[in-house]
Amino acid sequence: MDAAVTVTDLVVHRGRRRVLHGLSATLPRGQVTGLLGPSGSGKTTLMRALVGVQVVRSGSVSVLGETAGSPGLRARVGYVTQAPSVYADLTVRENARYFAALYGVGAAAADAALADVGLTDAAGQLVTDLSGGQQGRVSLACALVGVPELLVLDEPTVGLDPVLRVELWARFHALAAAGTTLIVSSHVMDEAGRCDRLLLIREGRLLSDSTPQELRARTGTEDLEAAFLTLVRTAEETAA
To answer: Which residues does 173 contact at the CB level (< 8 Å), separation at least 6?
Structure first.
């Protein structure tokens, strides 16, 4: 299967502190890859490197056959940060239709994106009047409207009720089935089982790059959180 993303020996520093330690991974096209790990493990730094907005010390990142951050990727890659990245003084609908116009698609596509994230009923509200979780969904809708080939989502389900989380994950898999590659970060291990592939990161180091099934077999447990803890202990014993 062709790779959507190839990361090779990636090293990133923040000031004098090394955040990513020679990380390498290959992510297949048309799948949902989960980027799992505790807060502060380097997930957001890696995602910033994938979309080309992170200064790297060494190594390389290739995205859809081009160097990460290349101008040719701007219309092919969608990125949703943890902080809302839309206009607070516009309504939900106005935001979606504005981004739709930037991508050269019509109002119908904007309205469909809002429906996909469960915001049709809130379409006329100002973004500033929404909850944090709703604002995050507006950002997601604005990314979806461009139908990107690669969609990078930083903690997209934080603060959402269980029903909406299930609906969003179903939407993620529908996008993957249609050919979109998704990278979804989370620090909640119960979301790991929803992914086609998992990258488990701790303290800037990649502990595992495998499917959930492979991880379970490797660690001898069906519980993915227990599997993660097994990998942590193994890494600590090896380092000692």
So the answer is: 32, 194
Mean predicted lDDT score pLDDT of the chain: 92
Decide: 3 and 149 in contact? Cβ < 8 Å: no
- Nearest-CA neighbor of 141 among 92, 205, 70, 200? 92
CA–CA dist 133, 151 (Å, integer): 19
Nearest to 46 by CA among 64, 29, 21: 21
Strand 32-36 with 181-186, pairing: parallel
Helix (H, G, I), strand (E, B) or coil at 179: coil
Burial of 233 (0-12, 13-18, 19+ CB in 10 A): exposed
The DSSP element (H or E) to which 45 belongs, if any, is helix 43-50
**pLDDT above 90 (res 200):** yes
Mean pLDDT, residues 66-76 taken together: 94
Average pLDDT on 144-158 reads 91
Backbone angles phi, psi at 54, to 5 degrees: -115, 125
Span 60-83, mean pLDDT? 94
Among the listed residues 205, 200, 202, the one whose alpha carbon sits nearest the alpha carbon of residue 215: 200
* Tokens 């202990």 -> residue: 233
The Cα–Cα gap between 148 and 29 comes to 12
Band of the pLDDT at 240, cuts 50, 70, 90?
Answer: low
User: How far, in Å, CA of 34 to CA of 17, rounded?
Assistant: 25
pLDDT reading at 55 higher than 70: yes
Amino acid making up residue 10 = L
What's the pLDDT at 1?
52
